[in-house]
Amino acid sequence: MSGHGHHHDHDHEHDNHFTAIEARVKALESLLVEKGYVDPAALDAIVDTYETRVGPRNGARVVARAWSDPAYAERLAADGTAAVAELGYGGRGGEHIVALFNTPAQHNLVVCTLCSCYPWPVLGLPPVWYKSPPYRAKAVIDPRGTLADFGVTLSEGQHVRVWDSTAETRFIVIPMRPAGTEGWSEEALAAIVTRDSMIGVALLDAAVAA
Amino acid sequence: MNGPHDLGGQMGFGPVVPEPDEPIFHADWEKRVLAINVAAGGLGAWTIDGIRHARESLPPVQYLSASYYEIWLAALDKVLVQHGFLDEQELASGVPGPQRRAPKRVFAGDEIPAILRRGFPYEREAQAPARFAVGDRVRTLVMHPQHHTRLPRYARGKTGVIERVTGCHVFPDTGAHGAPETAQWLYTVVFTGPELWGRDGDPDSTVSIEAWESYLEPA
Q1: B213 and B128 in contact (C-beta within 8 Å)?
Q2: Domain B28-118, what fold?
Q3: Among residues A122, A117, A38, which one has the least CA distance to residue A87?
Q4: pTM recorded for the entire structure
Q5: Chain B residues near residue A35 by CB distance under 8 angstroms
Q6: What is the pLDDT of residues B145-169, one digit of tens each?
Q7: A168: closest CA among A73, A98, A88?
Q8: Of B10, B109, B188, which has the smallest distance from its Cβ to A44's Cβ?
């Protein structure tokens, strides 16, 4: 990330020496505000939403509910959008949600080769690697090699299914519930569900998480 | 278009390198670009595919060397000028001229939670029955349009199976260029690794795309 190293703890002193891109963004924002095209309060509210309200903890609660409540898991499989809405999640960047259940026979992996489509309401904003050429190029042609980049090796004979998000359908992987979590509360279960496991680039292990 | 964005199957980018404990944003300007991108969508001048096309039609060298928020920023500049909200001189000087184009809508701060929660659903009422059913074998078109499309190059001219009929969804290829909205049936089509990649494909993998009906013909 260019410019990253310049930030450390001096953000508040930057008023008079913006980097080129900071200056461009400031200029664009003030042009749009001054011309009446954008409400600055709306910009703040959008940032606040994705910094503090919408993120992978939402998806983790969906997974934990699906593990704990077979009837919910069935509804989630039948209509992801409606089932996710039961927990209060949905909307921009996730208007049409499909849940993909990992099984011993099949592991699911989600990518967007053409841009950066990602289920915002349940996972928040995508990490840089998800939007970058190495992942977008490799996931569809070499899914097992892609998983190996994340240190993941699938069980012998487990099929890999890659989902390329080429439309407004958004996918969330429901990882397999780790052994040793029998009797755990939904809250405890949600705490072990990682963002990467809901993209399909990580497996879960109760022993590691506990 | 066969742009730099159509990355599936390309080589030479090296391994995927996840960043440990990655922050949501890497700089404050990224937050503002995200927010401007969402808010400016409210002006009602372009569709989600319109701005995708603005990104993918950036010069390939620029696209591949920029960070994703830099790509978003460049595309925002482009669509705001294209649609008459700003001009090049304003962007260069930072000094606003008169408002020449009225926005359809400006999102107010207090409306944002409800707007984001509702989102912008893309499913429309079907005008005709779906042409294909689950289990049908289909072949994707071979096409190389100059315009926006969501049929990636690696999946053109390939034979797959309809796995799911998703619904009737807004068609991106024409909407990206300002045509009145139309909708088509959308399907999940699944291909085997070897169908897509020949002898270099993983025989124990499958890949699916979401394909609009006009991308498909019976196989």
Answers
A1: no
A2: Cyclin A; domain 1 (1.10.472)
A3: A122
A4: 0.94
A5: 85-86, 96, 99
A6: 999 999 999 999 999 999 999 999 9
A7: A98
A8: B109
Q: Is A155 noted as a catalytic residue in this protein?
A: no
Q: For the segment A52-111, what is each residue's pLDDT rounded down to a tens digit?
A: 999 999 999 999 999 999 999 999 999 999 999 999 999 999 999 999 999 999 999 999
Of the pLDDT bands very low, low, confident and very high (cuts 50, 70, 90), residue B27 is very high
pLDDT at A4 over 70: no
Contacts with A38 (C-beta within 8 Å, 6 or more apart), sequence order: A29, A32, B36, B39, B40, B106, B107
Has the ipTM of the complex gone over 0.95? yes
Provide the residue ranges of all domains of chain B, joining segments of one domain with +.
28-118, 137-218
Q: In chain A, which residues have their Cβ closer than 8 Å to the Cβ of B64? A: 133
Instruction: Kindly report the nearest CA distance between residue A39 and chain B, in angstroms.
Output: 6
A180 pLDDT more than 80: yes
Tell which residue, A101, A123, A98, has the closest CA to residue A195: A123
Nearby residues of B93 by Cβ (< 8 Å), 6 or more positions away: none
Flag whether residue A157 sits within 8 Å of chain B, measured between CB atoms: yes
**Chain B touched by A113 (CB under 8 Å):** yes
Name every chain A residue with its beta carbon within 8 A of the beta carbon of B34.
46-47, 50, 125
CATH topology of domain B137-218: SH3 type barrels. (2.30.30)
Mutate which of B17, B22, B29, B55 to test chain A, going by most A C-beta atoms within 10 A? B29
